[in-house]
Fold each of these.
Amino acid sequence: MEATVIRTGTEGKTWGGGNEPLKASYGKMMMWFFIVSDALTFSAFLAAYGFSRFKFIDSWPIADQVFNHFPFLHGVDAPMYYVAFMTFILIFSSVTMVLGVDAGHRLDKGKVTLYMFLTIIGGLIFVGSQAWEWTNFIKGEYGAVTTEGGNILQFVNGEGERVALEDIAASLPSERIANGRSEEVWFSSNESVADYTLEQVKAGFASNPDLLVKTLKTGEDGHKIILNREESLAKLNTEAVGVVEGANLTHNEYGPPLFADFFFFITGFHGFHVFSGVIINIIIFFNVILGTYERRGSYEMVEKVGLYWHFVDLVWVFVFTFFYLV
Amino acid sequence: MAHDTTHTHHESNAKRIWMVFAILSAVTIVEVILGIIRPTFLVETHFLAMRLLNWIFIILTLYKAYYIAWAFMHLEGETKGLRRSVVWTAIFLISYLMFILLTEGDYIFDVYKHGYIAWDF
């Protein structure tokens, strides 16, 4: 028996996991320990997000207006569709994973291989989609103007549709160069300058009577408040201090800086989990192909990595709700 | 065998898995549709200081979480002790964390709004 069956080396050892409290093997129990602690980490992030959101409850961006891109549909307002697509990818890869675990119970090596493969593909599509989402978020679409107090002023036309800076900015002669080490301030450098100056935006705004300023403040009806023409001009000319395009950790064109910070941090941390899940899945996938678990007589390793994979899906369900829906 | 799981016979659960997939998909589609149209009635009605629509989203999310944990992570097949130590630990700690941080965030919002402190220059 010992000669033909490969064992995990923990049989019969009390502290090595040879016994099974709660009828769960050592590895499975440890996976549950890890999942509970990781769940608490994620809930801490989401609770911190909730804290900041409640703190800026009347000026938080509306997700539908931020995440409204879809591949090949430029300029079309497509709120939610892309993130719904991502959600389906992840749920479906969870289904293939659990089908793989199920096939493992029946010691069906071929089926386990197939389902593990599909799960890995699903995970890769998800990570790729997230990269695309990040790209759009970082690049931004319309651009905005920031005030000294850190508020964002966006621009809309008479119908309330967003207008991009490039359609507003007047072409004024200006000479600007990126601040580099060879310039006067040797110890600081920035990589680029914004495409338009505040003066260009102000001049362009003043010359087009159709344009209005949209503030971050949310009105009673749940929509952002749009100022009338006189208020818009006054606001822009007295309070604006700079142009913002896209998003980084200190500025973003969507709303409070914390909004972008949490977006990068929470979806980034989740994306990192998906990425490591894909790596672990690939390792287990090759073990399945090599027949490691067939010789061991148990596909429990697939079950354990499956637990992790479902957990990543579970977290996404909550991120989806609190970042995109609520 | 070295590893015996709690089931003794290994029939295929494929039917139940696809059933759960159908439920999760249906709930997600409902969420997305509600998220896109945002019915005025649900947005404007408040229940316990939150929009009715947000309550619906959160309840549907917990419903999905239940199916993922029970069917996919197979908590339904584990012993009661394992199930309870996983679920209740998380629920107690997360509820506490949520309560304390959201209350605090709301308080700071009130201070900014009514506290005669200039923060928006």
Amino acid sequence: MTSFRDVYDVVREMGAELLAISGDHVWAHKAFSRSLDGVPYPLLADWGMAVTKLYGVHNAERNCPIRSAFVVDREGILRFVNAEFNTRDPGHYAQVLEELQKLP
Amino acid sequence: MAALPEIGAPAPDFTLPSHLDSDVQLSSMRGTKVVVLFYPFDFSPG
């Protein structure tokens, strides 16, 4: 997940944070981050897929997360889900940013 | 596939290790809007 790096500044300006989760181990995340000259938001290691399953986005066949985006408000309430996130569709990024903007 | 968490309900809490070294707990970020992204693998295209 490198593409959200392009909108990270906008996300921060909206008073929001980004968390990116895959099943890779922390050492893989560190190598991945280095290869991109540093990823500014946390890459989280869901080793074992427990959180991925908790969020209902586990691809059992490949044993990895399905690319998806969730927006959580300041109270910790889930406000938006896109469980078929397509990095090639700029509209999908716009939707997430719109949701952030709507939230107080 | 398990069901997606419900919109309008508390987002399921988690604590996971981060490449930035400290663990991250979603519920400790109360007061901040959070985008939680899932992606298949490091080095996967996109």
